[in-house]
Amino acid sequence: MSDRRELNREDDIAVQESKPKLEKPRLYKVLLLNDDYTPMEFVVILLERFFAKQREQAVQIMLHVHQKGVGVCGVYPRDIAETKVNQVLDFARDHQHPLQCTMEPD
Questions:
Q1: Structure pTM?
Q2: Which one of 20, 22, 40, 80 is at 20 to 30 Å from 34 when CA atoms are compared?
């Protein structure tokens, strides 16, 4: 009987778990840089394909890049932003366009 009481006392002990405080990941802007050689339609296709932009929004971003020299394609956690930059650069290179893409902290 005393063994059961010992077990019951151990079962009654409350275990307090501390939940780790999670921070939101730092976000990065993916930027397209204007050049005088990459066709505008290519940039629109790229924005639709890699950034899931609708046609109208892709055209607006492309025009912003064309007029201002740089434009934001999207804002993502670091790993996703790096992947997007690499996809854009590979796609541009595969199609022999000098388009540049980079990322910076938001």
A1: 0.78
A2: 80
